[in-house]
Amino acid sequence: MSDIHTLVGAYVLDAVDDLERAAFDRHLADCPSCATEVGELLETAARLADGAWSVPPPRLRAEVLAQVSRTRQERPAPRPGRDGRSTVSRWRTVTAAAVAAAVLTVAAGVTSYLVQQQRVRDERAATVAARAELDRMQEILDEPDLVVRRGGLSFGGRLTVLTSPARDAGVALLAGAPPVPPDRAYQLWLMAGTTPRPAGVLTAGAGDDSAVLAGLSGMSAVAVTVEPASGSAQPTTDVLASVPLT
Amino acid sequence: MTDPSGARRRPDHLTPVPSPRPEPNAGRAEADAGRAEADGLLRAVALGDEAAFGRLYDLVAARVYGLVRRVLRDPAQAEEVAQEVLVEVWRTATRFDPARGSATSWICTIAHRRAVDRVRAEQASAERQVRVATSPAETPHDEVPDQAARRLEQQQVRRCLGDLTELQREAITLAYYAGHTYREVAELLGAALPTVKTRMRDGLIRLRDCLGVLGVEVTR
Ligand SMILES: [Zn+2]
User: Fold this and answer.
1) Is the pLDDT of residue A220 over 50?
2) Boundaries of domain holding B85
3) CA-CA distance, A11 to B2, in Å (whole number)?
4) Contacts of B157 in chain A (CB under 8 A)
5) Which of B79, B103, B129 is the C-terminal boundary of a domain?
6) How many A×B Cβ pairs under 8 Å?
7) Nearest CA in chain B to A69
């Protein structure tokens, strides 16, 4: 199993960055034991506020009540009913959007999110090759000329492409895409006009993953399709997202 | 202006109801009654009851403001964020689900999140400054309503924090009271990242057991 469970304490203490929070929120939907633990530990952490009691200036009460009297309340969300599935998939889409938005604003956070993802791939993270790829990603993400572009997948999730012209390289980040069967994988393509060049097969089955993109000059777009887990030489299914590079 | 402290916080008709359970002391009973009262008020607020919101304010404002101020340090910013938090409580009260935890905890969770958001936003724009966490015992006494329940709760939290290992306690207080990420905590303490994550988690579990937090009710 993945390492992400151990993030429970940091998550409850708000000691994670936006991208880790998004990743962990997604994890909570699938992990009842973490969800239970989060409930208990949030209750516990709130008790730490007992020690911080401090009476606010009296004007705060008048200001809050005045603002409340002109603030409309949220409608109650429909409780997950017999069709829990649609709630989950909508929620996933929202989370993926949040991840992509965060990628745009928190450049430093990208690195940590990728680090986190890498950990999630457990054994792979220990391999020399994976470490080298992670170092490579960090070098690219540290470039001052980093450009961030993103596109939505046709059935949920986002493809974010971060490129450094100086390095002629980039990082593709797939977030919140629906998981595929274990014998299938998302595959990335670099498009030179209408000609695709294989640019990396992501982890089999995974809807969240990242990969280094090399040799970007002359390329017009990054595309993604679903392929057999071993990868294809040419796309065999429809392009789900295409992010222009120019 | 009305006095938001002791006198208004507990309206007469909501004095603690004697509990059917044997109580070790009155402070504990009062603390429990305060929590139950907040639950009831928040449910009324979710139905659009502004008067209930006023009473809820009196019950939780000092906790919210105190927590936000502890994290942000700056009273003016703390006031601004506390206002945002309390209005958010009103606006999103329909999301509160009593089966998943207490109203007090739900409100504190929002308050802590917003305070930390503000810290992070500040850090992103200005140069990062190392904040020094202080122990929760340091709230000036004149700001603390002299109330048995409050004092008992604070003593209990302090005692339970004292039962943690030093690393557990430092990891938790640096994150909770100073708004540091676990990466920053690791840096500050010179500890490995996995160690800090683990200490945050097992420290909170130990606190939970020490405080006797009931947490999520599994039976609905
Ligand atoms: Zn888990």
Assistant:
1) yes
2) 25-129
3) 38
4) 47-48, 50-51
5) B129
6) 222
7) B50
